[in-house]
Design a protein that fits this description.
Elements lengths: L2 E3 L11 E7 L10 H16 L5 E4 L3 E5 L3 H8 L5 E10 L3 H12 L6 E8 L8 H15 L3 E2 L6 E8 L2 E13 L8 E5 L5 H11 L3 E8 L6 H15 L6 E6 L1 H10 L5 H19 L4 E3 L12 H8 L6 E2 L7 H10 L3 H4 L21 H8 L5 H9 L2 E4 L4 E4 L1
Helix pairs in contact: 3-4, 7-8, 8-9, 8-13
Length: 403
């Protein structure tokens, strides 16, 4: 069964119609829930494609997108999670003469010396078995082009899918991002700093179907407007994979200054992180999110030792996800370069975690000492002030408001 989504442009029947074939990949393992996953994927695609003219058909196995602007749509789909691969293909009638003639036309202008043909006969009513179909099409190629067969390492793989909807012929397949459709797991809160790690953590969370809101702590005049704009840029890059991200900016100055005034220098970062977790937990409850996400990597800095994580984590019962926890820095940087956040992350604008970094931060903090130091000042009104004055930046609409 096909599901048709109404759009502005309706395509007419063509003998050799070019369209995009979408392969789901991991979604096909979901069995009874597959329909829910695919329908969310369709909605995400519609959000990413915006006002472009196109038409979507889909079933439990494949999705097809028709448009006069295949190239633009193909590029946009390469940032949609839940897609295993994107194929520029030609839809034909299930007639071997037509398929053979069309294959010759498709291969004109394609440079190759070796090839192989792969046929998938999903429609078993088609009278020619897959192997025989591949053999016949291979003969057509050998007859019309100076080449030879190589089934192990071909320059070109010609693929044909025979389905009830028609025959689909293609020679080009673009890898998608894989993963799950963004939002299938609900929404989490990403603690987004201006560094390298947290944007990568956000990207990996999006890949597993967790949509995001981003939380940034600013401390003017100690942190600059350039630092805030840097984080906005990082959130905007991540938003290209979601289309639904908002940036929440926490005014952290008063609370941070109180911490530095009342807490021994070696414990400043630990107490500051505990306060950040408290604020994040309040935001999660207020905005009905599900998890807290951050870019902590085990042992990378003093606040990311296992001892520090345990002490900092003790202020919340919200689940905390650390997607890059077991990666080394080079692995994280490699992903950052791939998703185009690296060059922004290394801009020299400090966030509130680095401006007053102590020379010798405690590596193995004690919970009892944290509780003692926090009792030295009344931090609850300062926490409440932070939460009540959060600035919400909608990256999609470029509008700003108070939480």
């Amino acid at each position: 069964m096909w599901y048709n989504l109404p759009v502005e442009t309706v395509k007419g029947e063509e003998k050799m119609q070019k369209l995009l074939l979408i392969k789901y990949g991991e979604l096909t393992t979901k069995k009874g829930n597959r329909k829910t996953f695919i329908q969310l994927l369709v909605r995400n695609i519609q959000s990413i494609l915006g006002n472009l003219d196109y038409q979507i058909h889909y079933d439990r196995v494949r999705m097809y997108i028709e448009s006069d602007d295949i190239e633009t749509i193909s590029k946009k789909l390469q940032k949609v999670f839940g897609i295993h691969s994107i194929v520029e293909c030609f839809k034909l009638h299930t007639n071997m003469d037509e398929i053979s003639t069309s294959l010759v036309e498709v291969l004109k202008g394609v440079s190759f010396q070796t090839f192989k043909v792969e046929t998938k006969r999903a429609d078993k009513s088609f009278p020619i078995p897959s192997m025989e179909c591949s053999r016949q099409l291979g003969g057509v190629v050998l007859k019309n082009f100076p080449c030879k067969v190589d089934v192990h390492h071909p320059d070109l793989t010609i693929q044909l899918e025979i389905r009830k909807e028609g025959a689909f012929l293609y020679v080009r397949e673009i890898a998608g991002l894989g993963g799950y459709p963004v939002g299938i797991q609900g929404k989490g809160l990403l603690m987004l700093s201006g560094g390298i790690d947290s944007p990568v953590a956000g990207y990996l969370s999006l890949k597993r179907g967790v949509d995001l809101e981003c939380l940034y702590f600013e401390s003017p005049p100690h942190t600059s407007l350039e630092a805030k704009n840097k984080v906005k840029s990082l959130a905007t890059i991540l938003n290209a994979y979601s289309g639904n991200i908002k940036l929440l900016v926490v005014p952290f100055t008063a609370l941070q200054e109180a911490i530095y005034k009342n807490v021994p220098e070696s414990y400043v970062i630990t107490i500051m992180r505990r306060m950040m977790y408290r604020i994040a937990s309040s935001v999660i409850q207020k905005r009905r999110l599900k998890v807290l996400i951050n870019g902590e990597s085990i042992g990378q800095v003093a606040s990311q030792t296992l001892s520090s994580m345990c002490v900092i984590n003790s202020v919340t019962n919200i689940p905390v996800i650390r997607p890059v926890a077991c990666m080394d820095k080079l692995e994280i940087i490699e992903i950052a370069r791939k998703i185009d956040t690296y060059e922004t992350s290394i801009l020299p604008y400090e966030d509130c975690c680095t401006i007053f970094l102590p020379k010798h931060p405690v590596i193995h903090p004690e919970l009892e000492k944290c509780i003692e130091y926090e009792s030295r000042f009344d931090y609850e009104p300062l926490l409440q002030e932070c939460v009540e004055n959060i600035e919400v930046v909608s990256l999609k609409e470029k509008k700003e408001e108070l939480l």
